[in-house]
Every structure is written in structure tokens, then in C-alpha cells.
Design goal:
The protein contains 9 helices and 5 strands; from the N terminus they run αβααβααβββαααα. It is mainly α.
């Protein structure tokens, strides 16, 4: 392995979204566009339309809306003439729900985004359950969900979330060409969530 190959990835570029950004982002196609650019890398509106099963006019319009608030940018190293390449401006989107308490429209937008995340989790799990028999025993054991119950104050829960996120960032940052070259390597998505215990268990 060369020295360059051994160098860990830089920390993810993160954005703490503001009220204007959250109102623009709260749209099903825009969420998918940002996600596709983060996962797949730079692409044209035409390529994104094919990937997401929509039309180029729609992707072009929504990319411009996202660019207007700095969530996507043009890729300066690609494109020629009328062909524009786009890339995600950040790797990670951060916020706290209380950031938008004083703006009803932004609060409604962030609640929609949170609901969309849950819908994505459910859809991802359903797809996994429908196809898990096609995967190897190693992957079937590696994938999945687990939970744990605890009684904890909000400050300690924040500490727990921060520590877990740091672990995820470290694995992401330390991913190297050896991992990617492994024939068993596959892209995965890791969800992290913490919610109040259901009343019947309290």
C-alpha cells in the first residue's frame, strides 16, 4: 500500500442547515438528488433523471433550487458547453429540531424531513427482508437492527449520540482502498435513532 493509499479520508464536510435551506430541502425529489450526489458522486441532470426515474427538466429545476441555498454546487472540473455537472456541497447534514422552533414553516419542513427519514428506513428494511435470502451468511449476520432500553437524562443521551456518531465517522474516515477492493465489500447505510420508550413499557 502506498503512503497516499494509507492516508485516512478527510472528515466529512458537514452543514448545519438554516431555515432557508431546510424549507428548500423538504421535497421528496430534492432529498433524493442530494442523497444520490453524496453516494454516487458528481452527475449531470440527465444522469440523475435516469437514476431516479424522473425527467431532466424536473432534476434541472430542483438542482437549481438546491444550488440557490448552497446544498449542491457545480463541479468545476467537469462539464463543457451546455452540459452542467453537479455535486453535493456537503457530506453530512446536521440540525437540532429546536433550531426551528421560532419559524412554523421551517419547523414543518424539518418534521417532514424527519418523517421522510423514517419512511426511508422502513423502505430499506422492507427491501432487505424481501431479498435477504439472496445474500451470503456473513452478510445476513452483519446486517440487521438491535435496540436497548435505558433511563437517561437528555444531556447524557446527547453524549451517547455524540460518541456513537464519532465511531461512525471514524469508520467512514478510515475506510481505505483495501476495503473498497475487497470483493465482499458493498455500500451500506447505517441509521442511528433514539426515541422515548413506548408508554406501555414504562
Amino acid at each position: 500500500m502506498t503512503e497516499d493509499e494509507a492516508t485516512p479520508r478527510p472528515a466529512p464536510r458537514a452543514v448545519r442547515i438554516d431555515k432557508r435551506q431546510v424549507r428548500v430541502l423538504a421535497h421528496p425529489l430534492r432529498m433524493r438528488l442530494v442523497g444520490a450526489l453524496r453516494v454516487k458522486g458528481p452527475a449531470t441532470a440527465t444522469a440523475l433523471a435516469e437514476m431516479l426515474g424522473t425527467n431532466t427538466g424536473a432534476t434541472s429545476y430542483h438542482l437549481r433550487q438546491l444550488a440557490g441555498v448552497g446544498l449542491v454546487i457545480e463541479d468545476p472540473d467537469r462539464g463543457s458547453g451546455r452540459q452542467r455537472w453537479w455535486q453535493a456541497a456537503h457530506d453530512v447534514t446536521n440540525w437540532e429540531p429546536s433550531d426551528f422552533d421560532d419559524d412554523p414553516d421551517a419547523r414543518a419542513a424539518i418534521e417532514w424531513i424527519q418523517g421522510d427519514q423514517v419512511r426511508l428506513l422502513v423502505d430499506t428494511a422492507d427491501r432487505w427482508f424481501a431479498t435477504q435470502h439472496e445474500w451470503s451468511p456473513a452478510w445476513r449476520d452483519a446486517f440487521g437492527m438491535s435496540d436497548i432500553f435505558m433511563t437517561i437524562p437528555p444531556a447524557r443521551l446527547e453524549e451517547l449520540k455524540t460518541e456513537l456518531w464519532q465511531v461512525l465517522e471514524r469508520y467512514h474516515r478510515e475506510a481505505d482502498p483495501v476495503d473498497s477492493a475487497d470483493p465482499q465489500a458493498r455500500p451500506v447505510q447505517v441509521f442511528m435513532a433514539a426515541y422515548p420508550l413506548r408508554e406501555e413499557y414504562q
